[in-house]
């Protein structure tokens, strides 16, 4: 019995294997995680709202529901897209997904054929890239700088490669760099992609976790041609265990996602969808998000100030205004994966940057997470990491 050819293209996550390497030594301070802080989950309100939901809608919660998503949730999410993102969304634009990871997987399934090209930022979220791999596509990276995707590089890639079908971008507090695109770059990006027959995935799980600076409109709000497929998620604003996320797309695309979902899993978990409805309608979700923003800001600021104080001057890093990650660039020639074992031995860990590229990636980079570590761990861990870097940089 042989597995499908498709499975040859599905590889175990390189990041998971790094995390295993790190977990093999006890007591390591890990900046390698990619999880939201569980101490911030609104446990009391979730307990109360869940009980209230069962009392009011228990039978519905345990019954089959619509493939597209629970009707009330579609309404809540469409309103949220209007209010928070300035997108003229209606329930017919929304499809509920099991995490935005399912939105990524379904988008790849809907649009990609063998030989198509997917364009992703250099670097990017590997989960998005891996979702495309089964379909026999190839990948091209477009450079990014502190203002976001580099438009001249994007123009070149699109002009030279007519087989580009899908662009995968994370304009807000990107995983792994923490950077947000400027308004100017977003406008330029839309102007460029509107000239090509392509589909854009705007993956935005971190957009609401802005803890500094002004909100910048999402690509979807500037999408006059229905080319942008927006992915939103409750994972970072509420909790990832519920696995409730959504697609906001042109109605003709939404119909196709619904058709696909019928054959994939019939529908998302009705219980979890109704938990989100109850919580979002009757509890202080905006106050909760403000708490997350404040807590992450404090940790991010602390980490950055310690990095400024302790890291060698030749080491550069991003200064995120939101999200969960800081991206560190080491001097040319220094291999972050090569010194990871030494760092782990010293008691601190990170994810080497090379694992965040569709093709070959920069070896002299690392991703640091600041959400699941305590202030004390940040204080200790950054000094330990600085000592390792000083030996090499
Ligand atoms: C950029 C990005 N997209 C998507 C996801 C998946 O999120 P979800 O929990 O909604 O599936 C993650 C998870 O960390 C992410 O960083």
From TrEMBL:
Its cofactor is pyridoxal 5'-phosphate. CDD domains: AAT_like (cd00609). GO terms for biological process: alpha-amino acid metabolic process. Keywords: Aminotransferase, Pyridoxal phosphate, Transferase. Residues 28-381 form the Aminotransferase class I/classII large domain. It comes from the Bacteria. GO terms for molecular function: pyridoxal phosphate binding; transaminase activity. InterPro entries: Aminotransferase_I/II_large (IPR004839), Class-I_PLP-dep_aminotransf (IPR050859), PyrdxlP-dep_Trfase (IPR015424), PyrdxlP-dep_Trfase_major (IPR015421), PyrdxlP-dep_Trfase_small (IPR015422). Homodimer. Belongs to the class-I pyridoxal-phosphate-dependent aminotransferase family. This is 2-aminoadipate transaminase.
């Amino acid at each position: 019995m042989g597995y499908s050819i498709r499975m040859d293209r599905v590889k175990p996550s390189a990041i998971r294997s790094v995390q295993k390497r790190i977990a093999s030594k006890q007591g390591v301070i890990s900046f390698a995680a990619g999880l939201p802080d569980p101490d911030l989950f609104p446990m009391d309100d979730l307990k109360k709202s869940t009980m209230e939901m069962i009392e009011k809608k228990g039978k519905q919660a345990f019954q089959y529901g619509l493939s597209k998503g629970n009707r009330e949730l579609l309404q809540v999410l469409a309103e949220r897209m209007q209010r928070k993102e300035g997108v003229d969304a209606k329930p017919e634009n929304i499809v509920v997904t099991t995490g935005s990871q399912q939105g990524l997987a379904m988008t790849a399934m809907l649009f990609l054929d063998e030989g198509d090209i997917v364009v992703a930022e250099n670097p990017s979220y590997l989960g998005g890239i891996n979702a495309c791999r089964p379909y026999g596509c190839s990948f091209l990276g477009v450079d990014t700088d502190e203002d976001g995707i580099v438009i001249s590089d994007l123009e070149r890639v699109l002009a030279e490669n007519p087989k580009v079908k899908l662009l995968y971008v994370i304009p807000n507090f990107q995983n792994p760099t923490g950077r947000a695109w400027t308004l100017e770059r977003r406008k330029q990006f839309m102007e460029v992609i509107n000239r090509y027959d392509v589909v854009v995935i705007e993956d935005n799980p971190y957009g609401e976790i802005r803890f500094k600076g002004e909100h910048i409109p999402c690509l979807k709000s500037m999408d006059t041609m229905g080319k942008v497929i927006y992915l939103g998620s409750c994972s970072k604003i509420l909790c990832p265990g519920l696995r409730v996320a959504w697609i906001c797309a042109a109605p003709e695309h939404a119909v196709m996602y619904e058709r696909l979902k019928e054959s994939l899993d019939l529908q998302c978990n009705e219980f979890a969808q109704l938990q989100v409805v109850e919580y979002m309608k009757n509890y202080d979700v905006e106050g909760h998000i403000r708490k997350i923003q404040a807590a992450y800001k404090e940790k991010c600021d602390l980490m950055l100030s310690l990095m400024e104080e302790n890291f060698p001057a030749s080491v550069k890093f991003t200064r995120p205004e939101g999200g969960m990650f800081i991206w560190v660039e080491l001097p040319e020639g220094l291999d972050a994966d090569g010194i990871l074992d030494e760092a782990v031995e010293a008691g601190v860990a990170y994810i080497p940057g090379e694992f965040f590229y569709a093709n070959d990636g920069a070896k002299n980079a690392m991703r640091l997470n600041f959400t699941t570590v305590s202030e004390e761990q940040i204080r200790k861990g950054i000094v330990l990491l600085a000592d390792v870097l000083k030996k090499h940089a």
